[in-house]
Write a structure and sequence with these properties.
alpha/beta, Rossmann fold, 318 residues, homodimer, DNA-binding, 12 strands, six-stranded parallel sheet
Chain lengths: 318, 318
DNA sequence: CTGTTAGCGCATTCAC
DNA sequence: GTGAATGCGCTAACAG
C-alpha cells in the first residue's frame, strides 16, 4: 500500500510483529504514524472474534462497597490491555439481564458482582461465555466470595460477651447471597451463645431504609442490632439519634463492609471488607480464563474480621 | 435462509422493519427466536460505523464524588440503548490519554470528567469525535460545570461573619479546574471581606493527604480552613483530632461536595454538590450530539450553596 | 519473511 | 416488498 507493502504485512506489523523483519516494521510504522493510521478495532474483532473487552455489572455503582472493587478490576484489566464496560443494574434482576444481553455481544467475559439474577439465569449465561461471580456461590462457576460470615459471627460473639441476650438482624436485599450469608451467621452465632435473634426486613441497602427501620427496631425492644451493611447501619444511627436513643449506651449497632471508615459518629463497629481485593482477584481469574481458554471451577474465599469501634457497648440493665 | 428468506431480509427485519411486510417480520422473528439468532453487534458496527457505545472517564472511581455521576450517565445511556465504558485514569493525564486512545475506536462519544489532560490534548480530541466535558471549561466544547465557586464564596463569608480574620485553603490537584475555581473563589471572597488568605498544597484529594496536611495548617496558626473537598476535609478532621485540636472550638473546617452527608463527626459544614445532575446532563448532551450530528457549544452551569453543619464556629479569641 | 485469496456478519446499493 | 451482489477493515490459511 502506501508503504509499498500489502495489507497483510501491515496487519502483521500490528498483530504479530515477531514474524516480520525489523526493517519492514520500522518502515510500516513510520508511514502509519505519518498518515495517522490506526488498526480498526471493530474490524479486528469481527475477524478474530476477540474484542479485548470485559463487562463488570454491579447492583449499585453509588454504593460505596463497589467503587473500590470496580477500580481494582479496571486496573487489572488495563494491565492486560482490556477495556471494561460498566453495568449498573439498580438492584433489578430484569435490568441486569438486559445489560448482560446488550453487553454480551461485545465482550469476551463478564464479572457479575452481587448478581440479583436467578441461579438458572446465571448458569445459562455461564454456558455461553466466560463468567466470574463475586459474592455469589454457584457450583462450577468461578467465584470470589467475601466471607462476611466470619466477621458477622465475631460481632455476635462480641455482643454476647458484652452481656447482650438478644440481637436483631436488619436484612439487606432478599435476593442477595451476602444477606443470606450474614443472616445465617447471626442465627448460628446466636444459637451457639444461646441468645435470642429476631430479623427485620429492609427493602434496599440504603441510608434512608436504615433510618426508616428504626421504629421497628425500637418496637422490638432490642438492645443490639446487626445491620446488613454500613449504609443501613449509618441510617439506623441517624434514626436512633433523631429519637434521642444513645449509642452505645441504650443500644449497640454493628455494620458490615467497613466502607465508612471512622467517619460516622459514634465511629461504627463493623466487619472488615476486601472489595478491592475481590475485584482484583475476580478480574485476574477472568483474564486467566480468557488467555488459557480453560474454565477452572475456582472458589476463592476472602476472609473478614470484626473491626472494633465505638457503637457497641455493654447491654443496658433492664 | 432458515426462514425461507434471504440475509438481506433478515437484516432489514432487525434494522429497518418499516420497509418489510408485517407477515415476513413475524415469520423471521419467530425463527430467529427459535434458533437463538441475535444480530452480531460487531459486524453491524463495522458496516455502519455506529457502535452505540460511549465512554466515561473519571480520575478516580473510588472518590465518592464520581459514583453518583457515573450512575446517572449510565441510566441516561441505558435509556437511549447505549452501553458505557468506564475509564479510571488514576489522576494521571498519561493514563487518561491511553484510555481515550484504547477506547476511541469503539465509542461514538466521550464524557471526560474532571479531565487531567491539557487544553491542547482535549481540543485535539474534540476535533476527532463528539466530546462532553464535566468540570472543565474549554471554549467550543460542550461542557457541564458545577459552580462550586458560589458555595465556596458563601463559606468564606460565613467564616468572616463568625469573626474569622484569616483562612487557609487546602489545594486539590494542580491540574484540576475545580481546584482553581475554588481557590480563586476563596481568594476573591477573602479580599472582599478583607481577611487574610493562605494556601497550602496537598498532592491528591484523599483522606490521607488531608491528615498529613494538618501539621502545615497548625504551623500556619490558622483558625479556619477551607478544604478542596470533603475527603480532604475528613482527613483534616482526623488529623486535628489526633492532635487534640477541637473542632469547631479551636478551628473551623469547611469541605466541598457534600459526599459524606452528616456522617463525619462533627458533621461537616460543606458545599452542596450536584454530581448526579451533572452526569445526567452531560450524557443527555452527548446523546443529542450523536442523534443530531450537531456540535452545539453549550456551557451548562450548575449552582451550589453552603450546607451549614457543625464544623464551623466563632473565631477563638487570640 | 511477504503477497494472494478468502471470509468474519452485517447493511446497503441495485435490480426484480 | 424482496433477493443478489458488493464492501466495511481486518486476520488467517496458503503459497511462494
Amino acid at each position: 500500500m502506501a508503504a509499498g507493502v500489502s495489507r497483510s504485512t501491515v496487519s502483521r506489523v500490528f498483530s504479530r510483529p515477531e514474524s516480520i523483519s525489523q526493517d519492514t516494521i520500522r518502515r510500516v510504522k513510520a508511514i502509519a504514524e505519518q498518515i495517522g493510521y490506526l488498526p480498526n478495532h471493530t474490524a479486528r474483532a469481527l475477524s478474530t472474534g476477540r474484542h479485548r473487552n470485559i463487562a463488570v455489572i454491579v447492583p449499585d455503582v453509588a454504593n460505596p462497597f463497589f467503587p473500590p472493587l470496580i477500580a481494582a478490576t479496571q486496573d487489572e484489566a488495563d494491565r492486560h490491555d482490556y477495556c471494561v464496560f460498566l453495568g449498573n443494574s439498580g438492584e433489578s434482576a430484569e435490568r441486569e439481564e438486559k445489560l448482560v444481553n446488550r453487553l454480551g455481544g461485545q465482550v469476551e467475559g463478564l464479572i457479575l458482582v452481587s448478581s440479583r439474577m436467578s441461579d438458572q439465569q446465571i448458569a445459562a449465561l455461564a454456558e455461553r461465555r466466560p463468567l466470574v461471580l463475586v459474592n455469589r456461590d454457584l457450583a462450577n462457576i468461578p467465584r470470589v466470595l467475601i466471607d462476611s460470615a466470619k466477621g458477622t459471627l465475631e460481632s455476635v460473639e462480641h455482643l454476647a460477651s458484652l452481656g447482650h441476650d438478644s440481637v436483631v438482624y436488619v436484612n439487606g436485599p432478599g435476593a442477595s447471597w451476602s444477606n443470606r450469608q450474614r443472616r445465617n451467621a447471626v442465627r448460628r452465632a446466636a444459637a451457639a451463645r444461646k441468645i435470642k435473634m429476631k430479623s427485620v426486613a429492609c427493602q434496599t441497602p440504603t441510608f434512608e431504609s436504615g433510618r426508616q427501620v428504626v421504629s421497628q427496631i425500637s418496637a422490638s425492644g432490642a438492645r443490639a442490632v446487626v445491620a446488613f451493611d454500613d449504609l443501613v447501619a449509618q441510617g439506623i444511627l441517624a434514626g436512633l439519634a433523631e429519637n434521642s436513643i444513645k449509642v452505645p449506651r441504650d443500644i449497640s449497632v454493628v455494620g458490615c463492609d467497613d466502607v465508612l471508615g471512622a467517619a460516622t459518629y459514634p465511629a461504627l463497629t463493623t466487619v472488615s471488607n476486601c472489595s478491592e481485593e475481590a475485584g482484583r482477584v475476580a478480574c485476574k481469574l477472568l483474564m486467566e480464563m480468557l488467555e488459557t481458554n480453560a474454565f477452572a471451577d475456582v472458589r476463592y474465599v476472602l476472609d473478614t474480621h470484626l473491626v472494633f469501634r465505638d457503637t457497641t457497648g455493654p447491654a443496658p440493665s433492664p
